[in-house]
Input
Amino acid sequence: MYFFRPLTVLPPLPPALSELAVIAKNFWWSWEPGGDALFRWLDEELWENLHHNPVALLLTLPQEKLFEAAQNPEYLEIYEEYRRRFAEYFRRPTWFSETYPDKKEHVIAYLSAEFGIHECLPIYSGGLGLLAGDHLKAASDLGLPLVAVGLLYKSGYFNQEINPEGWQEARYPLLNFHKMPISPVTDKEGRELEVQVELSSPTLCWTVSLRIWEAQVGRVRLYLLDADTTRNRAEDRQLTGSLYGGDQKMRLQQEILLGIGGVRALRALGIAPAVWHINEGHAAFSVLERMRELVSQGLDMETAREVVRASTIFTTHTPVPAGHDVFQADLLSCYFDKYCPESGLNWESFLGPAYDQDRNGFNMTLLAHKHAAYTNAVSQLHGETTKKILAPVYPGIPAPEIPVNTVTNGVHLETWLAPEWAERFTRLAGEGWRTPQNNPEAWEKIAQMSAAEIWGVRKELKVRMIDRCRARLLQQRQRYYASPTQQEEIETCLPPDVLTVVFARRFTAYKRANLLLRDKERLASLVNDPEQPVQFIFAGKAHPADRAGQEIIKQIYDLSQQEPFRGKIAFIEEYDIETARCLVQGADVWLNAPRRPLEACGTSGQKAVLNGTVHLSILDGWWPEAYNGENGFAIGRGEVFDDEELQDYYDSLALYEVLEDVV
Output
């Protein structure tokens, strides 16, 4: 039998631009201030059409354009500047190398189901993935000896389109990995490196092969596992088809590949982590694989369990009990029938540590937590909520003593800060504001920026945001052949001189994007105020299986098409990293309205305030820790009611009050 696969060949670059391909394959350029100029200059329209993918750009660009650029003094100056910065980034000492020079071999493995690095690598769905991506970038800047492992999804999450009736439609593109800033890992003979994961039931045993790809995120290596290889059965090739797709059976198989396959991939690469960090419960099966290894080396099961626990960290992100993956025992037996005996586990000892009595199943969060020496929630309030969720596991133990710590999420500064701010920060404080970022002297210098200059930047960013939103709205209407009049009205919608409130995040019921819609009369008064009008931009995806989230999108879309809201409320489709950057940088006010205490952290607000945007939020997630009464606005006072309808009614009143009387 002959196997065929696509072969992508990067055309030879002019000698004067020889390092361009190396920079294109490292996501460093995506957060280096102004780094996209290196590629945007070559063909701005093509750059936009390719979703800012530098590898696809170099493959698509006519070769004569590259040779023209190699002789253009303006471009050569840009190229030489970023080539110098790239080399300097890897050459200079880091915080970790100077603080812990004897720990450089103590590798940290970071396992996550999704990573939001950049829009041209769409293997993320929302906050969990963006946090993971920012984590890798920060680790790179600090010089942490970290490697990461995830899955490489053939269709990513999904592309969102809003049809003329206002319903979300999910599109699943087939990604060409050979045209992306990733590379297949090969062995010493040049063969693509693969690992195998065995799945077994009482009647069937089979093997899934996983090809390993590498993404370079500055100094950090991200290894991605891909089941779409000809060695696998057709149905197994779909196991890495899409993020969070399919049913419980598909979800379980994906998590087996991530956890067990992730450990085997690092072993195949010759990497021996000192610490294993599980980012959410999806990768929890990694602890079983590590225990199996130790048992095969002669340790008894309980000793192996303690060894694994001593080197494991677990971060939980989900404050909703139903959000934690739970699998039924009969489903688990379809894939672990032979794995348990090989691991020295009987069925009861396999199920025991992760058994969730309330939900009568195998809880992945419990599996990770019970095998971690350190578990952390992602905000102080989330820590309290997590302890309540875990209280049944610790009967008789006071909540403060339940072993859950708190590390509040942050964001990667350079990724989300607008280039206009970065340029001014550097002019005022040199490079001192970048590393370390807690340099008081640098920020005191930045604080001397004049109000007029700050306002000028804010206006510039807002105009860019409005232009991008109008372009997306026009593209949407052109797709379903809207009338010329409907297309022309886009030119005047969302005027830049009107106070603009943005709500952009995952659409699900508890995040309450529709809280504003509870009183349409008051909302109409806000958007049509003759002296101080307000306009609203919404963006976000609902999971394809989340009908309630999709109905909220439709509610907002329908309202945006009605008078007196037309042109003053807009829903922007296909919320991705590119759109998020544009919105957090250009919004006047960033709105967050979760049902407290269900927001684990909510870092989009942090990204917004970095850019001078005012934060308006329920006191949930990170906001209770940051809000001081002068640095933004709070909705309500942190009240929590048992009745959700009463909670929503009260919070909607508080939201209207602060919008009408304060903001």
About this structure: The mean pLDDT is 94.
